[in-house]
Amino acid sequence: DGGITQSPKYLFRKEGQNVTLSCEQNLNHDAMYWYRQDPGQGLRLIYYSQIVNDFQKGDIAEGYSVSREKKESFPLTVTSAQKNPTAFYLCASSIRLTSGRRGETQYFGPGTRLLVL
Amino acid sequence: EDQVTQSPEALRLQEGESSSLNCSYTVSGLRGLFWYRQDPGKGPEFLFTLYSAGEEKEKERLKATLTKKESFLHITAPKPEDSATYLCAVQARTGTASKLTFGTGTRLQVTL
Q1: Which of A25, A106, A113 is best to mutate for the B interface (most B CBs within 10 A)?
Q2: Which of B80, B50, B43, B48 lies closest to B62 in space, CA to CA?
Q3: How far apart are CA A29 and CA A73, in angstroms?
Q4: Which three-class secondary structure state does DSSP give residue B97?
């Protein structure tokens, strides 16, 4: 079955620690995204990547880092610089957006809940 | 700045009681408007994409419509399994082209 997997389902971070969230997709999508979801707020874009070895900051990139070495994988690192990391993190993927075309549907993974110890 | 406002925040229906959820938006050129369903603790599940005013899409008990300023998600004769949070998002033609701007969602509860 094609889809997006995220691991772990729950992650606990100690103060000063960097943690990495995994996102893998087998949909053959070029574009991948990371969103953060907080209670009472809409999903907010952290980083996105339209192609391997390239990624762009979203609206709330401070305290986060990403890499895109393989088409299937887009890991997110929550660094110690992120002072309020407790949230539900969602990874998504889509066909690559091209100029002048209609919007492309983004498909989401099951999410990782990050909690601070 | 692109904005999405969903109403109501929460809606409680009895099984079989039809209703509509509203998504009002302002965007600098619409690439697409997206509806998702999200169950507690899960990732959003894609429902519909609408691209231009006048467009409609249906799936089982759900029907989505689009005007130049808002979208409606109509739920006909809902069942308890339709209980979830319904999210609306828009994608603009300018700015960060890949970005989806989300509303805060409508929490729907359908009771027997």
Answers
A1: A106
A2: B48
A3: 10
A4: coil
pLDDT of A1 reads 62
Q: What is the pLDDT of residue B101?
A: 94
| Residue A116 CB partners (closer than 8 Å, separation 6+) | A12, A13, A14, A15, A85, A86
Q: What is the DSSP letter of B82?
A: G
Amino acid in the structure at residue B81: E
Which of A89, A88, A91 is CA-nearest to residue A106? A91
| Chain A neighbors of B104, CB-CB under 8 A | 40-42
Report the alpha-carbon distance of residue B92 to residue A4 in Å, rounded.
24
CA separation for the pair B112, B72 (Å, rounded): 24
- A70, two tokens: 């393989």
Q: Write out the two tokens for A12.
A: 């606990």
Nearest partner of A55 among A68, A43, A46, A44, judged by Cα? A68
What number of other Cβ atoms are within 10 A of residue B43's Cβ?
Answer: 22
Q: What is the pLDDT of residues B43-102, one digit of tens each?
A: 999 999 999 999 999 999 999 999 999 999 999 999 999 999 999 999 987 766 678 999
